[in-house]
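Input chain follows. Return structure tokens only.
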Amino acid sequence: MHKGLDRPAQHRARALTERVRLLMVDDDAAFGHALTMDLRRMGYALRVALSAKACIKTLSETVCDMAIVDAHLTQDDLSRLRPLLRARCLPVLWLLDPDAPLGAADPWLDRGDVCLRKPVGLVELERSLKQLLRWRFGWL
């Protein structure tokens, strides 16, 4: 996981990520499942929603610190999700389609948001999550 760190530093870094509760919203169950397994191996507590309706239900039942959202959800789902995520001040990692320009998401990005293109590499994913952690909590 954190190869450049000594053992105590690795344990501290893992302890920080274990406190972070992620919400992942992606209607692609196969991609979502693979990403879920990787995020759990990294030590994140994770809740998964396959639609905006499931996301709204999850957010009403649980506290989340950050969200990972597929930007290719339906416009109706995205228009319901964005205000909810903003109201809770959640930083969001937006997953864009491989051919989508990074600037395409600019109109609805918040200052703490990050965009990545699918498929997402683990190193890039971990770097982006740490960037969100620094913005949200000042960690890592």
